[in-house]
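## Example pair
The file below holds two records. Each record gives the amino-acid sequence first, followed by its structure token line.
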Amino acid sequence: MRRLRHRQRSRGQALVEFALIIPIIFVLIMGLIEFAVAFNATLGINRASQNAAHMASLAGNIQGADCLILEQVETDVGPPNNKSRIQLVEIQRSAMAGNLIYAQNAWVRTGSTTCELNNGTSVEVPYTRTENGYPVNQRCNILNGCPSYSPARSTVDNVGVMIRYRYDWITPLGTLLPFVGGDPDTSRGWTFQKRNVFRMEPNL
């Protein structure tokens, strides 16, 4: 009888311990999945920014350059990332380190814009421009600079592309954040941005 009681007590203790540990295990698994997908999202958006900045350096001041840049963003943002979660794309004249922004064009992902290219074709992108502080005709790609521009430049521009993206949690992990002092907005997702800068390809 003593052995039977001891065995039943041990089983009951193991069941209670399992009931206490299993929620922690589930949270750890959700955290691992969420971190992996979120990290993949940051890599994907950074690569899209990098390729778009490279396109901007090649496009220079040709007609329709912004649409070519935005088209590159659309091409590079694919599953598991969602194009509709792109909030903002900025095309910037910046310092090479990206720490100083001198001028920028801002595009939000809503509506549509059609650009005519130099070769007579057109490009349509699902973006609307909200700021035009860095127009195409003020992008310097002359190696010796553009003294007639305002402000004057002594060499080619450094052009950057910043993408702001909203990542929505794919697991219920976010709903737990307010209970541990997290921001209620953070419980629904996470907004981040990535920027890359290239030196504009010069014309001699």
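Second record, same layout:
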Amino acid sequence: MVPAGRAQSVQLETTVFRPPGPGPFPLLIVNHGKAPGNPKLQARDRFIYLATAFVRRGYAVMVPMRTGFANSTGKFVEYGCNMTANGYEQAGDIADVVRFARTQPWVDNEHIVLAGQSFGGLASMAAATQDLPGVRGIMNFAGGLKVHGDLCNWQGALVKAFGEYGRHNKLPSMWMYGANDSYFGPELVARMHGAFTAAGGKADLVAYGPFKKDAHGLLGNRDGAAVWLPEVERFLASVGMPTREVYALAEPPAQKATHYAALDDVNAVPYLPQRGREQYREFLKKATPRAFAISATGSWGWAEEGENTNEKALAACQAASKEPCRLYSVDNDIVWSAEHGTAGRN
């Protein structure tokens, strides 16, 4: 829990990843987005794929949940369609995390970079208007904040906000936005970047092509590293941060494919009622990473893209089952074996 706020009375729930040893390590601070709904109900972010890449390169990684999110204390404060104020409000927590981190003996307090995704990207760019000792640059992944519905011209408000941040910008940044981002499309991104740089801000825009169904989820997708890692390494080198891998991290054990049935053999899936088979048929249209779980009670659950799809599929299944759930299909493989049971096969 990291102290934050005007009187340091707020406690920010923070995930820390560290290489072995006492350090000091260069540091990455990753700033999360905002899911729809109550911020208190938002799950703690870990950014496991980004964190893994940085720990391999000798970095420590901190992922703080800002005020009012998840198990952080305090109340989330928002300013509606005033995007400039929304970014500045969140930037206060980021600055507090930087100050705290620089007091830790395991942090190399002269080699720090920030990354932000979605609302965290907007907040990180707002933070870059402050004096942040030790911070060398900002990585903005699909930064912004979308207002759902036609409540205001939030797009124009974002352009205005980035113009404001550009006028006061103190740190170089690298921006990454995909062509099929469902929140911030190429035309809006061009306007935001143009306003930022025209006002004096330093930002290299990486406008990459489509990524799966929605580029907004790039950082949370296992396959996203092929897109972002080369750009991240180039940016890190440009601001004097390490890029060479120095630690080997074991990959999570893969689920072993079996020959129980063909992937698209819907009738081979054990236990499921007709509606469950219809759901499995729809699941086969989903993007990878993906997982489908079943139980002997006829319950099922699935998850696609993002982090921890196996665990999420099992949890979705288990929520409706008194019997243990097991994985049936992972990505494009069947991982179910006959020893798990075949009841309900037809």
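Notes on the second record: Helices lie at 48-56, 83-101, 119-127, 154-167, 186-198, 225-238, 274-283, 309-318. DSSP finds eight helices and 13 strands in the chain.
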